[in-house]
């Protein structure tokens, strides 16, 4: 049972009268700004022209039909709106019962069953730091994977590693000039990054270094043993360091596939583009002309004969479609790459790829640090692992102050500290810019991850004290307004998941979790639970269990752990 199903039942009852499809009418049903008006409202102004009636009269005519719908207690016409009240007691029993029996069913109707998606996310560059700037792609992609799986999809997560290109020639050249094997092994990413930054600093006064970097990359392309050995070593050391961050975040991938994997797959793409007459010469390069689509040309082969990002992304798209059986390809990459993906998707369409219509650039806003843009080339970077460790330390200090006797403080500090960093980002609408500030991330009051986790722990504590293995809503109990607000929110879990998946935006789930917390904490403060008389006690314990499970599921979908105690 959920709000979506009862909206559909109401819409089905009146669709024939208003001459609109059932799904369209269901989408028109709104939540009144004032709950005193009802649980749902249908504005009837939009039917006036076709029905040639006053909206007030339309609402009155529809009221009788809606009152006959199972689960509806009353329907009243008021100033062109049809205000609808649901039958609270039976609705509460069904919603709470579903949440307790299977919280998955509360959230999901498994719309994606039989479909496969590949999500490209995180994608750090080898030999460069895993900075806070990588956080957004990593955790948005990870949350999307969990949300889509909850919605019934088969999802493959791909970490598209940046481990090819001229920058690796520069790193090799810098290592051979100024590097130390011991220093790289001691702290691989920071040391390799230090060498990369030094290379650019030295190149400002010695521009011939750029040629040396290009020469080493050419050796790498040609399979030179020394260049290949160093390149593979840099990859192994970088991945070892990256994995420590992924383990802290609780993020996993089904596939780690570097850019170089597609080197032997690009020629087939180029040949097909030539055969289909899609390539033309432009200043020595080979491009696909996209002027008919108000886009600049998409470069496929550079003037020096080498490939470019677009060529690799075309090859990667084909590989993911065929190797994984994916009909949907998602790319969780910053908004600054908008044009690149528009070009790639258009070229795929021109090549006749049916799946091109299901390629989506899940763009997100820039992350700044204390108002400043980060730049790896200039060495302006904040290491994500350092941020996570600081958040964990802060969480541990708060636990020591507020609950010094708590068992397993280290594990809970990690859950809370990391959860604070993740939630701080995911609660923001993904296309908005995020300015990373410690005072916001580590604020444990207000609309934060620790607030949601604490509400979950509070509900868990009530259930532990009740020592009730089995809880169930008492069908004879009529919920009051505060209890009903909480139950009605639980019934909207499915709508929240589907909206989050359809918009590729985890902030929908984060905001839903916050709403649930606010409603539960109001209920908790105003209603005795353990000391209540029956049947209130039994029903309130069932409601507490339902909320706890819904919060745990919401946190899971966001990639955040749910401590039982805090």
UniProtKB/TrEMBL annotation:
EC assignment: 6.1.1.19
Cellular compartments annotated: Cytoplasm
Keyword tags: Aminoacyl-tRNA synthetase, ATP-binding, Cytoplasm, Ligase, Nucleotide-binding, Protein biosynthesis
Sequence ranges assigned to domain Arginyl tRNA synthetase N-terminal in this UniProt record: 4-86
Motif ('HIGH' region): 124-134
Domain DALR anticodon binding: 452-566
GO MF annotation terms: arginine-tRNA ligase activity
Reaction catalysed by this enzyme: tRNA(Arg) + L-arginine + ATP = L-arginyl-tRNA(Arg) + AMP + diphosphate
A Pfam family reported for this protein in Swiss-Prot or TrEMBL: DALR_1
Domain of life, source organism: Bacteria
Family: Belongs to the class-I aminoacyl-tRNA synthetase family.
Subunit structure: Monomer.
Protein name according to UniProt: Arginine--tRNA ligase
Native species: Alicyclobacillus mali
Gene assigned in the entry: argS
């Amino acid at each position: 049972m959920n709000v979506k199903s009862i909206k559909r039942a109401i819409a089905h009852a009146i669709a024939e009268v208003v001459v609109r499809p059932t799904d369209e009418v269901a989408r028109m049903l709104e939540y009144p700004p004032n709950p005193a008006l009802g649980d749902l409202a249908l504005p009837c102004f939009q039917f006036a022209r076709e029905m040639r009636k006053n909206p007030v009269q339309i609402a009155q005519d529809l009221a009788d039909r809606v009152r006959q719908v199972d689960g509806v207690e009353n329907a009243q016409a008021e100033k062109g709106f049809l205000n609808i009240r649901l039958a609270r007691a039976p609705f509460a029993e069904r919603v709470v019962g579903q949440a307790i029996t299977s919280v998955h069913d509360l959230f999901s109707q498994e719309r994606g069953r039989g479909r496969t998606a590949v999500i490209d996310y995180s994608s750090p560059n080898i030999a460069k730091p895993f900075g806070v700037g990588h956080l957004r792609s990593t955790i948005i992609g990870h949350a999307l994977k969990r949300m889509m799986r909850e919605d019934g999809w088969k999802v493959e997560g791909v970490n598209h590693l940046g481990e090819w290109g001229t920058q690796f020639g520069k790193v090799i050249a810098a290592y051979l000039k100024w590097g130390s094997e011991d220093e790289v092994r001691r702290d691989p990413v920071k040391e390799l990054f230090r060498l990369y930054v030094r290379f650019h600093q030295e190149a400002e006064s010695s521009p011939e270094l750029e040629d040396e970097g290009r020469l080493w990359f050419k050796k790498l392309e040609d399979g030179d043993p020394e260049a290949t050995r160093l390149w593979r070593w840099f990859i192994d050391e970088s991945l070892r360091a990256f994995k420590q961050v992924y383990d802290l975040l609780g993020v996993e991938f089904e596939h780690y596939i570097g850019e170089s994997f597609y080197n032997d797959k690009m020629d087939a793409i180029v040949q097909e583009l030539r055969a289909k007459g899609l390539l033309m010469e432009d200043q020595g390069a080979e491009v696909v002309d996209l002027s008919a689509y108000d886009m600049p040309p998409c470069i496929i082969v550079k003037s020096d004969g080498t490939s470019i990002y677009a060529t690799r992304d075309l090859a990667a798209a084909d590989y993911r479609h065929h190797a994984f059986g994916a009909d949907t390809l998602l790319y969780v990459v910053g908004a600054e790459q908008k044009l690149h993906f528009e070009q790639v998707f258009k070229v795929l369409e021109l090549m006749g790829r049916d799946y091109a219509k299901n390629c989506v650039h899940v763009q997100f806003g820039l992350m700044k640090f204390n108002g400043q843009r980060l730049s790896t080339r200039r060495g302006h970077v904040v290491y994500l692992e350092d941020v996570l460790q600081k958040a964990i330390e802060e969480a541990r200090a708060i636990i020591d102050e507020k609950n010094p006797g708590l068992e397993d403080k280290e594990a809970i500090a990690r859950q809370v500290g990391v959860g604070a960093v993740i939630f701080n980002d995911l609660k923001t609408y993904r296309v908005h810019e995020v300015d990373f500030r410690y005072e916001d991330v580590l604020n444990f009051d207000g609309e934060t991850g620790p607030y949601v986790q604490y509400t979950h722990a509070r509900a868990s504590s009530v259930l532990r004290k009740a020592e009730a293995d089995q809880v169930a809503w008492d069908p004879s109990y009529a919920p009051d307004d505060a209890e009903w607000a909480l139950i009605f929110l639980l019934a909207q879990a499915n709508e929240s998941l589907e909206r989050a998946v359809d918009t590729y935006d985890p902030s929908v789930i984060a905001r839903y979790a916050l709403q649930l917390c606010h409603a539960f904490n109001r209920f908790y403060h105003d209603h005795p639970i353990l000391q209540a008389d029956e049947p209130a006690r039994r029903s309130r314990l069932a409601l507490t269990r339902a909320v706890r499970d819904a919060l745990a599921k919401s946190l899971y979908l966001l990639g955040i752990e749910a401590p039982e105690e805090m």
